[in-house]
Amino acid sequence: MARIIVIDDDKDVRKVILYELRAAGHEVREAGDGAQGLALQRAAPADLVVTDIYMPEKEGIETIRELKEEFPEVKIIAMSGGGSLRPRMRAFTAQQLAVVARELSVGAVLQKPFPIQELLKAVEAAAG
After folding, report:
1. Directed axis angle between helix 60-70 and helix 94-104, to 10°?
2. For the chain, which has fewer Cβ within 10 Å, the N-terminal or C-terminal residue?
């Protein structure tokens, strides 16, 4: 099973993802923002990082870029809640999410809310 870091500023979202990934047998650590996630990765590198795109402090795109720069082999799954949660942001369309995934070299970009099976499938593909 994979060593995974979950980065999301929403504690409830992290809690659900952590529970499901641990139930699937993965070793999972959590961070509330990109800076914390990077610190965890630097201290003990994970195989996979699951990160939100929109976060305070250090947001997801910046976090993904730094992860890829420092840890080129790490697999990444990005999540986007878009504008519904943050007034200044707008939700990505499916086509825009595909562009983000390609440009940032991430394995998948999931649009929140997503079925947990979609996340588990993406994790399996990335960790495989």
Report:
1. 30
2. C
User: Domain containing 106: what range?
Assistant: 3-127
pLDDT tens string 33-59: 999 999 999 999 999 999 998 887 777
- C-alpha 123 chain-centroid distance: 10
Can you give the CATH number for the domain in which 23 is found?
3.40.50.2300
Q: How far apart are CA 48 and CA 27, in angstroms?
A: 10
C-alpha distances (whole Å) from 116 to each of 16, 25, 92, 109 are 9, 15, 20, 14
Quick one: DSSP state of residue 24?
T
Count of the separate structural domains present in the chain: 1
- Regarding predicted confidence, which is higher, 1 or 44? 44
pTM attached to this predicted model: 0.87
57 Rama class: left (phi>0) / alpha (psi -120 to 50) / beta: left
Q: Is 4 helix (H, G, I), strand (E, B) or coil?
A: strand
Cis? peptide before 72, omega within 30° of 0 = no
| Rounded Cα gap, residues 43 and 1, in angstroms | 20
